Amino acid sequence: MIIKPKVRGFVCVTAHPTGCSAHIQQQIDYVKSKGPIQSGPKKVLVIGSSTGFGLGSRITAAFGSGAATLGIFFERPSEEGRPATPGWYNTIAFTKAAHAAGLYAKNINGDAFSDDIKKQALENITKDLGQVDLVVYSLASPRRQHPRTGAVHKSTLQPIGAPYTNKTVDTDKGIVSEVTIQPADEAGIADTIAVMGGEDWEMWMQALGDAKLLAPGATAVAYSYIGPVHTWPIYKDGTIGRAKIDLERAAKAIDAKLKATVGGRAFISVNKALVTQASSAIPVVPLYISILYKVMKAKGIHEATIEQMQRLFATQLYNGNQPKFDSEGRVRVDDWEMRDDVQAEVSKIWPQCTTENLAALTDIAGYRTEFLKMFGFGLPGIDYDAEVEPHLPML
Ligand SMILES: NC(=O)c1ccc[n+]([C@@H]2O[C@H](COP(=O)([O-])OP(=O)(O)OC[C@H]3O[C@@H](n4cnc5c(N)ncnc54)[C@H](O)[C@@H]3O)[C@@H](O)[C@H]2O)c1
């Protein structure tokens, strides 16, 4: 099959297996180039391991610290005439590379919110790893079926209290326009908290703790975002922001339990705004990211998910370092994004942006390159006109 990108709005409905594999190799090479992370994790459970920050965490743990990893994700395999999702190909490429390096890597594809997938993960850890010393919780999902009530909750990306109007960009067509998003009602807020809040993370940690699968001193980390005032109505102060407040509540509860039971720790890392499948679906945010990339690249401080996760592990979690917490007890690897000089320039560019000057004032080209790369396109050394086997079995 010859596979080309097919972009539909904010998703690409195709993915290239050898391109995804090359993308994984780039990330592995980056982690290796930074040298070993001392006293790093050895046995790691990554929930949401196939793309974005979870994938970056898994690669960093494996190739920075030689960790055994169990990855949980929800990806679609290939079908007749249709390639698999990128996370499917990413995971196969990661697993092959880990095995070639003599590292343990196993995978469970299914709904992490369900009891069944938790049970499978627990059985796997009991059998193969004994215990885990790091749990990374990095799910980004539009829906969750609650394992107790059976109710299906759908998360929304909406403001709260009043409609929100701001500039946005159609990243595919390069058109800047105004968008107005209606506020969520109470049910929408509650549903988003049910999907993206902390209850499921707590369920995972409770199940692992009850089964005595958490090693002494175990760490648990989940990821959040805050960002600048431009995006607060749709992010920090919107439905997703409420879910993140709940995730922070869960971090504190999990932290207290871990401290009391295994002498461990749990916290939130606030990460930088980056092109991922999750963030490209948020209105306004892709325009902000395009401006941010322009500013941060000009200052030589741009990072992608792998650089962010390598920095988190190497400078905050391990290597003899202790996490440096903000006043709310969070680790901040969004520190460079939030620098005053960076945000001052973003604020200067933001009001000037139009369809006509988008290419000059923002890094929309860089946004598109990163976006396509997530699906395995635009990688050097790949012949995209050549036939490629799309049907790869999960390892
Ligand atoms: N992208 C950003 O700019 C940004 C910034 C800061 C924090 N974050 C946070 O980082 C976390 C990860 O987001 P991302 O951007 O890396 O997202 P992503 O879409 O790249 O990754 C999501 C992962 O979750 C998995 N997943 C989704 N639903 C699942 C389910 N039901 N069962 C099992 N696996 C499932 C996917 O397979 C994938 O591995 C989120 O909490 C997000 O809010 C993102």
TrEMBL record:
Look at the named UniProt entry and state the broad enzyme category this protein falls under: oxidoreductase
**What InterPro entries does its record include?**
Eno_Rdtase_FAD-bd_dom (IPR024906), Enoyl-CoA_Rdtase_cat_dom (IPR024910), FabV-like_NADH_b (IPR050048), Trans-2-enoyl-CoA_reductase (IPR010758)
Pathway-wise, it operates in: Lipid metabolism; fatty acid biosynthesis
Tell me the ranges covered by the Trans-2-enoyl-CoA reductase-like NAD(P)H binding domain, including all copies: 2-79
Site entry (Plays an important role in discriminating NADH against NADPH), positions: E75
- Swiss-Prot/TrEMBL catalytic activity: a 2,3-saturated acyl-[ACP] + NAD(+) = a (2E)-enoyl-[ACP] + NADH + H(+); a 2,3-saturated acyl-CoA + NAD(+) = a (2E)-enoyl-CoA + NADH + H(+)
GO MF annotation, one: NAD binding
Q: How does this polypeptide assemble, per the annotation?
A: Monomer.
What family does this chain come from, according to its entry? Answer: Belongs to the TER reductase family.
NCBIfam families linked to this entry: EnoyACPredFabV, PRK13656.1
Q: What is this protein called?
A: Enoyl-[acyl-carrier-protein] reductase [NADH]
Q: Which organism is it from?
A: Oleiharenicola lentus
